[in-house]
């Protein structure tokens, strides 16, 4: 990231269009994801593959753990968060060609039990052409500068978020699209308002979202949560360390996955007005 891009992240709460993978990498990664879909759609350990794609995929799928350790991504994230980096969750946001799926306006860390930290950032990597037509993300510049605002649960069926949570009042006239070419990433701050529309393109829209945190994020916070050290050192004691998947759907990793989800679910569903389905079994989105 050059100085202007870093300044724009600090000012706006997001920055878009940073190249990290070349076309051959994108083809390989997308191919590996589609191989998983072709051969392991039923998942393992009682969870469909889609569940692992939706949250904490790094715990059971080596590909996702490896992607979170990509030096080119870590170099960018280090500019924002500093030299000690952990990964909280690796996720895939897939909208099939012509899919009506959307993501409502929200702030990521609202239900993540991390308080209002400045030290969580998402690196969102395009593994297809994530154009405006394909339903790229939109961001509200400067919205990270305030605190966490109220969100209302909608549980809307076409919403990719776990509780369809949305911010009541967003001045969309100020929103900025963040289209990405394959292999580019955007960064967004955990309090930056963002959303995305349906995929009106003829290709799948595939985004890899990696949630990075620093060792200090959980200092003084209650409960237990888990993170994978990917660069530097963790001299704090807030995160329970996890290593990342050792083999696809390894039994010990599947057991850990359940443990992590169970510990996280109380936080993620706090105050919800309905059942928050953290164990999605649905098909493509
Ligand atoms: O993929 C999307 O459209 C939304 C992703 C998102 O909300 C996130 O990565 O925080």
From TrEMBL:
Keyword Ribosomal protein: no
A Pfam family this chain is assigned to: PhyH
Cofactor: Fe(2+)
Coiled-coil region: none
InterPro entries: Phytyl_CoA_dOase-like
GO molecular function list: dioxygenase activity
Record's protein name: Phytanoyl-CoA dioxygenase family protein
Source organism per UniProt: Mesobacterium hydrothermale
């Amino acid at each position: 990231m050059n100085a202007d891009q870093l300044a724009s992240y600090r000012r706006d709460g997001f920055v878009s269009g940073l190249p990290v993978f070349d076309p051959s990498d994108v083809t390989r990664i997308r191919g590996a994801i589609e191989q998983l879909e072709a051969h392991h759609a039923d998942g393992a350990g009682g969870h469909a593959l889609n569940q692992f794609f939706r949250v904490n995929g790094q715990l059971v799928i080596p590909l996702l753990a490896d992607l979170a350790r990509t030096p080119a991504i870590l170099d960018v994230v280090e500019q924002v968060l500093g030299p000690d980096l952990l990964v909280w969750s690796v996720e895939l946001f897939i909208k099939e060609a012509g899919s009506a799926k959307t993501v409502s306006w929200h702030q990521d860390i609202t239900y993540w039990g991390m308080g209002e930290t400045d030290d969580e950032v998402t690196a969102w990597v395009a593994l297809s052409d994530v154009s405006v037509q394909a339903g790229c993300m939109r961001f509200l510049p400067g919205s990270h500068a305030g605190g966490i605002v109220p969100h209302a649960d909608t549980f809307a069926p076409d919403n990719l978020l776990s509780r369809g949570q949305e911010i009541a009042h967003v001045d969309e006239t100020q929103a900025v699209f963040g289209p990405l070419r394959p292999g580019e990433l955007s960064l967004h701050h955990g309090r930056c308002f963002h959303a995305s529309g349906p995929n009106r393109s003829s290709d799948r829209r595939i985004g890899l979202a990696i949630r990075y945190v620093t060792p200090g994020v959980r200092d003084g916070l209650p409960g237990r949560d888990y993170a994978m050290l990917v660069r530097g050192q963790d001299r704090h004691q807030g995160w329970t360390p996890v290593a990342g998947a050792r083999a696809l759907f390894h039994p010990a990793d599947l057991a850990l996955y359940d443990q992590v989800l169970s510990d996280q679910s109380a936080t993620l569903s706090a105050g919800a007005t309905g059942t928050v389905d953290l164990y999605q079994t649905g098909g493509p989105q």
